[in-house]
Design brief:
mainly alpha
Length: 48
């Protein structure tokens, strides 16, 4: 039996890694983490 999980789990991990990369890139660009979180929260609420 594989311990890789199903495709949905793998996609979620890929997505998590993408968000980590984006957050690190934004931080390197000089954005504060709180500003990034607020922006993402607002976008998430708009999508819902």
């Amino acid at each position: 039996m594989s311990n890789q999980g199903n495709d949905g789990e793998l996609q979620a991990v890929d997505l998590d890694l993408e968000w980590v990369y984006l957050m690190m890139s934004a931080k390197k660009a000089g954005l504060k983490v709180d500003e990034i979180r607020q922006f993402l929260s607002q976008k998430t609420l708009q999508v819902m």
